Amino acid sequence: MKYEEALKELEQIVSRMENNEVGIDEMTTQLKRAKQLIKLCRDRLTKTDEEIKKML
């Protein structure tokens, strides 16, 4: 999954939660998915930062 796709999905989850569109039964699943997406984004940013530092 690309960084942009992960970020978009994460934004959708947050938006649905802010608008009370997520039921209590789905909340745990959505929070777990959000946690996975945050980790993916953080890892990609860290890797990109390291690669840029190597090039400079």
UniProtKB/TrEMBL annotation:
InterPro entries: Exonuc_VII_S (IPR003761), Exonuc_VII_ssu_sf (IPR037004)
Superkingdom of the source species: Bacteria
Record keywords: Coiled coil, Cytoplasm, Exonuclease, Hydrolase, Nuclease
EC number(s) recorded for this UniProt protein: 3.1.11.6
Coiled-coil residue windows: 24-51
Top-level EC class as recorded in UniProt: hydrolase
Short name of any one Pfam family annotated for the protein: Exonuc_VII_S
Claim: Hydrolase is one of the keywords in the record: yes
SUPFAM superfamilies for this protein: XseB-like
Cited Gene3D superfamilies: Exonuclease VII, small subunit (1.10.287.1040)
Family per similarity comment: Belongs to the XseB family.
Name recorded for this polypeptide: Exodeoxyribonuclease VII small subunit
